[in-house]
What we know:
Blueprint: H1 5-39, E1 47-53, E2 56-61, E3 73-76, H2 94-100, E4 105-109, H3 122-141, E5 146-151, H4 153-164, E6 169-175, H5 187-191, H6 199-206, H7 211-219, H8 223-236, H9 241-255, H10 262-274, E7 284-285, E8 288-289, E9 299-304, H11 318-321, E10 327-332, H12 338-341, H13 343-348, H14 350-363, H15 368-376, H16 380-393, H17 408-416, H18 422-426, H19 430-437, H20 441-450
Helix pairs in contact: 1-9, 3-4, 6-10, 19-20
Amino acid sequence: MPLNPFSAALDAQTEALETAADAFQRGSIAPDRALEMETIEVGLTPSTVVYEENKLELLHYEPMTEEQNEVPILVVYALINKPYILDLQPDRSVIRQLVAAGHDVYMIDWNEPSRLDQHLGLHDYVNRYIDNCVDHIREQSGQDQINLLGYCMGGTMTTMHTALHGEKINALALMASGLCFDRTGGVLEKWGDEEYYDPQAVVDTFGNVPADFLDEGFALMDPVDNYLSKYITLYENLESDSFVANFSRMEKWLDEGIDIAGQAYVEFIEKIYQNNELHRNVLELDGEHVDIERIDVPILQIMGEYDHLIPPEASKPFNKVVGSDDVTTVEHPTGHIGLAVSSSSHEDVWPEVADWFHDQSEQTGNSGAEDADAAKTETPETVDTTVEESQATATEAEPIDTIDGIGPTYAERLVEAGIQTSADLAETDATELAEIAQTSEARVKTWLDQI
C-alpha cells in the first residue's frame, strides 16, 4: 500500500515540533546550567596546609575514622594540572577513599611556578621539595618511614625519590606512571621523539612551558571527542543534574592547567621520554645516580588497560629491572584519568589499594620514632647482650636470602661483604649491616629479630 503523503507530512511536522520543543526546553535551562558549571566546587575533602615551600603547599587531610594507620601516605601528583583530580567529587575521590579506609593522608599541591622558577630541575623537585615533605611528615607522624602514592609524572618522581632516599620509604604505589619509554606505543612517546621534537626550543621561547601549550597537545590526541562529541553529549544530557555536575568538575580541572618549570620539563622529556634513562638505570640527578636496583620496598603498580597517555607497556617493564622482589600489579579496564574518577575504579581498584597499604604497613614493622629513640638510648652492654642472644638462638647457619625481607639486591651486597649466613648476620653490628646493605637500621632490626 502506498504511503499516505499527508500522513507522512504530519509525522514529519510532529517530529519537528517535538525537536523544537526539546531544544527550547534545553535552551531555557542553559543559562542556569552555565552558572552551575562556573561555580561548581571540587576538592571537598577537608584538609589543612601543614607545610609550605616556594609555591608548594602540603595538604594534610582530616581523619574520618577513630583509628588510623600509623604509617602516613604522601600522594604526589604530576606537575601538570592541579591535583584535585584525585579529590574531584565525594563519591569519586581517591583521597576520600584512602582517608575513609583509615589512612593518614597528605598530598602535595605544586601550584603554578613563576618565571623565576624556570630553572628548577628534577633534582629540585625530587631531592628538595618531595624530600622535605617526606621529612616533615615523618617528623609530624613520628614514623621513620612513610608510604608514597605517585600518579603519572608524580609516580616517576616518587620512583626517583625512593631510589635515592629508600631508608625513608615503607612502600611505593605507582599509578599510571611513566617508567619505560622504549617503543611502548604511547602517543606522547611518538610525539616527543627527539627526531621530531626539541623541548629546549619551547623553553627558550617561553621560559616555563605554558599550560595552554600542553592542554592543546593533550586535546589533539583525540580531537573529535575533545572538540565536538563531548559537547554534543552535554547538550543531550543538559537536563540531568548529575551528568552536568560530573561534566562541570572535569571541565574545571581541564581548564585549570598550570605551567611547568622549564628546566624540569626539558629534563623530563630528554632523560625520561627520549633517552629512557630511568628504565635503563643510567639516570643522574645533580650528578647522583638514581639507582633503581636500590629500590627494595614493596611496590604496587596501578595501570589503566586503555590508557593512551601512559599505556601499561610504559609501566610493566619496570617490574623486571627494579631491585624489589615484592611487586604487585593491578590493571583495570579504564583510561589514564579513569583510574582516578571512574565509578568502576572506585568500586574495584581503590578498596584494594587501601587494603594493600594496610598490609604493607603491618608486614614491614615500621618501628616509628619511639622505637628509634629507644634504640638510640640502648647502652653498649644491652646491644652486646642482644647480639649474644641472637647468636645463641641461631641453631642453623641458614643462607641470608632465606630471611624474610632480604631480597636478591640486599643478599648480593651482604655476600660481597662476607656475610653469607644467618650466623654471620647475627655477629655483625646493625649499623654496619645497614651501611653494607644500603638500607635503614630499622629494616636491619627486622632481619635480626627473625634470627
